[in-house]
Design brief:
- The structure holds 3 protein chains of 3 kinds.
- Chain A is mainly α.
- Chain A has 3 helices and no strands.
- By secondary structure, chain B is mainly alpha-helical.
- Chain B has one domain.
- Chain B starts with a helix and ends with a helix.
- Chain C is mainly α.
- Chain C contains 19 helices and 2 strands.
- The chains are: A mainly alpha, B mainly alpha, C mainly alpha.
- Chains B and C meet through helix 4 of B and helix 1 of C.
Chain lengths: 114, 153, 522
């Protein structure tokens, strides 16, 4: 049970993120939900490569102790960088939308129809 | 513009944040961290100063064009560093173990290595660090200016 | 010497050249606008040249691999890695290079077109940098042989295109469209990343060939497959997940709409690659094939019926893009459903060829139509069809280009849409006559819809007396795509022999793909 705790956390975080994206009407809250989903996925990747009692994988000639997997960490870092870019872009969109529509309510930001 | 206490501690902390950020960038191949993380730390320094002194004052000290230039320089040096290995393959780490700068061989046995090793990796870390500090700094500045403009309206 | 160098390094250079050009564009743009235009167009021409070299290499010598950072560049599996390809590997087979050719051509036309179209806008350095980044994203998606790398290029592609959709703020409407597109593609990309995490946890590998060769097809794999396929079907704009398409295509600047078509095709490539190469050996072909066929049918029919009622010229064309994507899904889906049975050599392979041929044709004529729509909007200033009229009097070349594009999309000979649609009808008829009949009805409705556009925008009395022909660079962008439409329309055999048939056989041969990377192959 304890071993699976990270994965349960992943499921909970992604579920909260999805809930925020589906049921919240404020655009900034939608972006927050997206960030939560991203954190959940990142946590999933990191916990995939975690080895109990392992050390950071930065040795040239590895000592005999166990190391955590470096690849998922590299993936997570890349995903974090992309996430920062996405979040920054979406928040700038929010700023522009607010300036032109005067609201961030997703029910009112609806000029595209048909 | 925030209170005097905040401004004073921002003055004290700003150089320390910069040094810490560049430390993370320079030791990217030895410790957890690297170009992106170090650059992000430096950009938090920009954000700290910008928030404690207000956008009106800060835009005279930190120019957006300089940050954009840092971004371009970082990206270009990254891709040029990748191009230098094109003789064997793109991104080839020809500098490692070559005896040149960052070219020392890591001694055998379990050790985390030292600064003057790893070839192109520290150079790329430095390039990414410069790029990220420019990029995130410019994001912070633009967001502040946009918030300012919305406020006036 | 130089030739050898270009031939060996072209997979890496195709990514590196536009990337370098993108980063250098703002620096040049600060000094001179003219030099920047020359720089961007020059970089695109060089990329196109590299793609042609790669096309030649792959056609002559078979699948190429390029390993980043390895010594030598062709060593996929280092001796101390325990038989796992650890580095980022670009696996370029005929299908990949076929898609790269589409992306580079449409990108070139879009870049040339933008020079005049975006002349008055502010922030042009960033616009061109993003255009080049978007092209890097498309090219990377189609050339890479690594799952995680695919995700990274997908994200580069979606971020750059979302930013470009919002380039002209347009009273906030474009930004609303871009927000929708960015949120949807970000969730999709995160789901792909989740699936990649599942696959990595199971098979300790990120390379597509390695994953395919170790595929067990457990329940977890099925979840991963569903996440990946649904996301990619969403990104290519098939019907249940099409809601971002009309907004994104409709509100983007003209050149960007054309390039978004190519970007969707790159996602379509991802869908086919996952269906055939990664999951194809283990999963049930019938299920996957019918998945594609049903998606294709719904997209074709609903897309065209939605298009009939539109009044906005670009929104109408966007719904047609959805509808045309259905043809590709239908053709390749029939190929996948019959894959491995005797029917595959009878008509399944021809259906695949038709579907794949339709990809390049669609990218060309839909790109051309979006460029003409952009030209009309550039001169008239509105995208509402009811307010247009009589443009044929003053915009002769644009009208001609529009007629060519419209006849081509409706499948009228001698243009290229006819060639590929005929291949799809013939082969799909043998699979199930009903499907072919529906495809033909959709084609007729497409023709009806474009007759309406032609009539309301170009025919009639002159409403706008001071409208002139668009500038030369916009015409040049359209002419590039028209050239390929007429070339592939008159000599379809040329395209089929050198581009389509190798691509279809590469896609239908995952064993060859895997053995080329993991050793044992030529």
């Amino acid at each position: 049970m304890l071993y699976n705790l990270p994965y349960i956390t992943v499921a909970v975080v992604i579920a909260i993120g999805l809930y925020a994206m589906l049921y919240k009407r404020n655009l900034i809250k939608i972006v927050i939900g997206l960030s939560l989903i991203e954190s959940g996925v990142n946590l999933f990747l990191v916990s995939l490569g975690y080895v109990q009692g392992g050390i950071a994988p930065i040795y040239t000639n590895a000592p005999k102790t166990e190391m955590v997997l470096p690849t998922p960490q590299a993936l997570t870092l890349t995903s974090i960088v992309i996430g920062v870019a996405t979040t920054a872009m979406l928040l700038s969109f929010c700023i522009v939308i607010y300036r032109h529509y005067g609201t961030l309510d997703s029910e009112k930001v609806r000029r595209l129809r048909g | 513009m925030m209170s005097k206490i905040v401004r004073t501690q921002a003055n004290i902390l700003y150089p320390l944040i910069l040094i810490f950020g560049f430390y993370i960038v320079a030791h990217g191949h030895l410790t957890p961290g690297g170009g992106f993380q170090g650059g992000a730390v430096i950009a938090t320094g920009v954000a700290l100063v910008a928030i404690s002194f207000g956008y009106g004052k800060i835009k005279k000290w930190i120019k957006k064009t300089n940050l954009t230039a840092a971004e371009a320089v970082g990206l270009l040096s990254f891709i040029i560093a990748a191009f230098t290995g094109i003789g064997t393959s793109f991104f080839c780490n020809w500098l490692a173990n070559s005896g040149l700068i960052f070219g020392d061989t890591v001694p055998y046995g379990p050790n985390p290595g030292y600064l003057n090793t790893a070839g192109l990796l520290p150079i790329m870390n430095l390039a990414v660090g410069i790029e990220v500090l420019g990029g995130l700094g410019v994001v912070v500045m633009y967001m502040l200016s946009a918030a300012k403009a919305s406020e006036v309206k | 010497m130089m030739w050898d160098f270009l031939m060996h390094n072209s997979p890496a250079l195709i990514i590196a050249v536009p990337l370098f050009a993108a980063f250098f564009t703002p620096v040049i743009g600060r000094f001179s606008k003219k030099a920047m235009y020359a720089w961007v167009v020059g970089a695109m021409i060089f990329t196109e040249f590299l793609v042609l070299i790669l096309l030649y290499t792959v056609y002559t010598y078979g699948t190429q691999i390029y390993v980043f950072g390895a010594r030598p560049y062709s060593m996929a599996i280092p001796p101390d890695s325990g038989g796992i390809p650890v580095r980022i590997i670009f696996t370029v087979d005929s299908m990949s290079v076929f898609m790269a050719f589409i992306a580079a051509t449409v990108g070139l036309a879009g870049a040339i077109y933008s020079v005049a179209c975006e002349k008055g806008q502010s922030g042009q350095e960033k616009y061109y940098a993003l255009v080049l980044l978007m092209i890097v994203g498309m090219l990377g998606m189609v050339l890479t042989g690594d799952m995680f790398n695919f995700f990274v290029f997908l994200e580069i592609n979606s971020l750059a295109s979302a930013a470009l959709v919002s380039y002209r703020i347009n009273k906030g409407v474009s930004v609303e469209a871009a927000f929708k597109y960015a949120v949807v593609s970000a969730i999709g990309a995160l789901m792909i990343l989740f699936a990649i995490g599942i696959l990595y946890g199971e098979y300790d590998a990120l390379n597509m060939a390695m994953i395919a060769s170790r595929m067990q097809f457990t329940t977890l794999d099925k979840i991963a497959m569903a996440l990946i396929l649904v996301t990619l079907a969403m990104k290519c704009g098939s019907i249940p997940m099409h809601f971002w398409v009309p907004d994104g295509y409709g509100k983007a600047p003209g050149a960007i709409s054309a390039m978004l078509v190519a970007a969707s095709q790159a996602s379509l490539y991802g869908l086919f690659r996952m269906c055939f190469t990664v999951f194809g050996l283990a999963a049930s072909h019938i299920t996957l094939g019918y998945f594609l066929i049903i998606l294709g049918l719904i997209s074709m029919f609903v897309g065209v019926t939605m298009a009939l009622v539109q009044h906005d010229i670009k929104r109408l064309m966007a719904y047609h893009a959805v509808s045309q994507t259905g043809y590709m899904l239908l053709g390749v889906g029939v190929g996948l459903a019959t894959w491995g049975t005797p029917a595959f050599s009878q008509y399944g392979f021809a259906a695949m060829e038709g579907g794949i041929f339709h990809i390049i044709n669609h990218a060309m004529y839909k790109g051309l139509l979006f460029l003409t729509a952009g030209a009309v909007i550039y001169r008239v200033g509105t995208s509402d069809l009811n307010k247009m009229g009589g443009l044929a009097h003053s915009m002769k070349y644009t009208t001609i280009f529009f007629i060519i594009g419209a006849l081509s999309i409706a499948g009228i000979p001698p243009f290229n849409g006819y060639a590929s649609k005929l291949m799809i009808y013939e082969s799909v008829y043998q699979f199930n006559p009903l499907l072919a009949v529906i495809a033909m009805i959709v084609s007729i409705l497409t023709l009806a819809s474009f007759v309406k556009v032609f009539h309301s925008a170009f025919m009639g009395p002159k409403i706008y007396p001071d409208v002139k022909e668009v500038p030369k660079s916009m015409l040049a962008g359209m002419a590039i795509l028209t050239f390929f439409i007429i070339l592939f329309g008159i000599f379809p055999q040329l395209a089929i022999t050198y581009l389509v048939q190798p691509a279809a056989s590469a896609l239908a041969n995952p064993i060859g793909y895997i053995s080329r990377v993991l050793g044992g192959g030529p």
